[in-house]
Write a structure and sequence with these properties.
Helix content: 10-25%
Distance between the termini: 48 Å
Order of helices and strands: HHEEEEEEEE
Structural class: alpha+beta
Strand content: 35-45%
Number of domains: 1
Number of strands: 8
Shape: globular
CATH architecture: Sandwich
Number of helices: 2
CATH class: Mainly Beta
Radius of gyration: 16 Å
Largest sheet: 5 strands, antiparallel
Length: about 130
């Protein structure tokens, strides 16, 4: 079943709303924990560098905090197999970083049922430090 049909079926069902569908997909997608190489300095914030490979038309990678709040939706429009993918820089809320770790959940949406990304769908993810001004 396509993602569009799935969402339409949920909305037409009436008893199951979109938030329930999002919660269900969250339960199936594992939490990704990235260890920081060092503590951020006083003038730095922690962001993510994410490399997304070629995805089917209409698909994207949802980035969520551990509590389920959506941080970003990444789409690799224009990325083709063999090109190395599209690289994104994603600002993280402070709640996604604690105890020297980044805790996020990545979910591929719009390419069949929501699922954790394969190595071809997300080929790289790492925390980066960016300077901030007070």
């Amino acid at each position: 079943m396509s993602a569009r049909r799935f969402v339409c079926a949920l909305l037409l069902a009436g008893s199951v709303g979109l938030p329930a569908a999002l919660a269900e997909s969250r339960d199936e997608t594992p939490l990704t924990v990235l260890r920081l190489p060092r503590a951020p300095a006083a003038h730095e914030a922690v962001w993510l560098s994410v490399t997304v490979g070629a995805l089917p038309r209409g698909a994207g990678v949802r980035v969520e905090a551990a509590d389920g709040s959506i941080i970003e939706l990444l789409t690799s429009f224009g990325a083709h197999p063999g090109t190395g993918g599209a690289r994104f820089t994603v600002p993280l809320p402070k709640k996604a970083v604690s105890d020297g770790e980044v805790r996020i959940r990545l979910t591929v949406m719009g390419a069949g049922p929501p699922h954790a990304p394969s190595a071809q769908e997300v080929s790289g993810i790492k925390p980066i430090f960016v300077p901030v001004t007070p």
